[in-house]
Request: fold
Amino acid sequence: MRLLAVLISAVLLCCQVAQAQVRTYDQMIAAGELKVAVYKDFAPYSFEDAGQPRGVDVDLAQALATALGVKLKLIWAPAGEKLDDDLRDYIWRASQLHDQQLADLMMRVPYDRDYSQKRNELGELENDHVVMFGPYQNEQWQVAYDRRRLHSVGSVAVFEQHPIGVEVDSVPSFYLTSVFNGMLAAKTHHYPGVPQAFAAMKAGEVDAVMAMRGEVDWQVHEAHDPQVALAQNAYPNMGKQRWEIGMAVHESNRQLSYALEEALEAMIREGSVQAIYARYGLQYEVPEMYQ
Reply:
């Protein structure tokens, strides 16, 4: 019985591996669809509104699929604990939790040499199965504040007196509770997500919110409140404050990355990508590669 169980397990494992095969560029074109993994419930990048997919990454994925002459098939990806987990589950070794479905492309991946060259304790590349390419957005940290209760934000030191909302377990959370020897910790309020933090600012619980610029821009756009302003302050002792966002494919599928990169560059230069960002009220800066 034990031998039978082992044999059955081996057969099932082989079936799972077969189901998780990475499609070549030619197979993707022949199938007539581009499978794209986007993060679930992550406005303004990828979310559902009345059952319809929306967001910057959704619209950009659709434009890229159109440029390749194929249909778009979205794979909604719940965010894992680490990006490494997401790349494994959707790009190179599908998880049982996701029905063994691999994507051809994943959006919203850091375009960062240090990250792509990161090695484990054995000196091996942690993401050697993945090619990260095609930067399409500059991202940074941003503070929005309510001018009815806070005149301006010259520096983060104002949050020693004024409460500020952040997403729990986020970089802004760790930063504001530790900078200046923890002086701002008492006034840092934590919420499940950025929308809840903005709702708290609207209710007067906090005077400001800190999050990624894209998320802040979206919330400001949706609020339609002229008293909500964007701060221009710096973040001392924070480390990396700006970074580029790109895409990822399996390392065996570089032909797809070349085709997508060519289509993306054309859309950036003609202003199509900027128009997508403007649709959601987001600021857009052309990545350095295309300047």
